[in-house]
Write a structure and sequence with these properties.
about 220 residues, mainly alpha, Serine Threonine Protein Phosphatase 5, Tetratricopeptide repeat, TPR-like_helical_dom_sf, signal
Length: about 220
């Protein structure tokens, strides 16, 4: 069975701050994209684990339909990728690998249209995939690409809670404990996002737990 390097993939590959796309389709897709965003937060953070996979699978059908209708809308692409990544974390196995491969395509397509959309969320999400998915020959994991995308996300949105959280998690994975602590501290102190209370609360809880773990490691050295 294929297993991801990090169990945080199930918790979410991101809840980036929503900023309306600047494409001609923005007015048509803004509300559906926000609906997917909010339903994802409910599934990822407010749904009991036994029901979470089914909730995410149903949401994946809706996010895919949105991409089919608006194939060049970066917001739709990003949230379809996030939903698929989260579903992969719940499902595991070979089915998970096919889901994250499609998520990678979504994020790459969003970057090709506008890499700053949703505060650079495609870079955050793609970077998270690259360090959490196994490397060759099983998957496409690549730490160098993970670092590149995560740093680009921070260049776009240096105070973003998700960009800082996932960069901290990546640095922790790399053994850079001091760097990880600094990134987690920034994630915890990140500005609140209106309408994103569930996601913010969940992400801060994750960052707080990781920071405590990192500080214990630093204290033991």
């Amino acid at each position: 069975m294929i297993r991801f390097r990090s169990d945080r993939l199930a918790a979410a590959l991101l809840a980036a701050a929503i900023a309306l796309p600047t494409l001609a389709t923005a007015a048509d897709t803004a509300s559906p994209v926000i609906a997917v965003r909010d339903q994802w937060a409910q599934a990822a953070y407010a749904t009991p684990k036994p029901q979470r996979e089914a909730a995410l699978a149903a949401l994946a059908d809706r996010s895919q339909a949105l991409v089919t209708a608006h194939p060049r809308d970066p917001g739709a692409l990003i949230w379809d990728g996030i939903v698929r990544s989260s579903l992969a974390g719940e499902r595991g196995g070979l089915g998970a690998l096919s889901l994250v491969k499609q998520a990678r395509k979504d994020f790459e397509a969003a970057i090709a249209v506008d890499d700053t959309a949703l505060g650079g969320a495609a870079h955050t999400s793609l970077g998270a995939l690259y360090y959490q998915v196994p490397g060759w020959p099983v998957g496409f994991g690549d730490d160098a690409k993970a670092r590149m995308h995560l740093q680009r996300a921070l260049a776009i949105a240096p105070e973003d809670i998700d960009a800082n959280y996932f960069y901290g998690d990546f640095l922790r994975d790399q053994g850079d404990w001091a760097g990880a602590a600094a990134a987690f501290e920034k994630a915890i102190a990140a500005p609140a996002r209106p309408g994103r209370e569930i996601a913010d609360r969940g992400r801060r809880a994750e960052a707080t737990a990781r920071l405590a773990e990192v500080r214990r490691h630093l204290a033991s050295r």
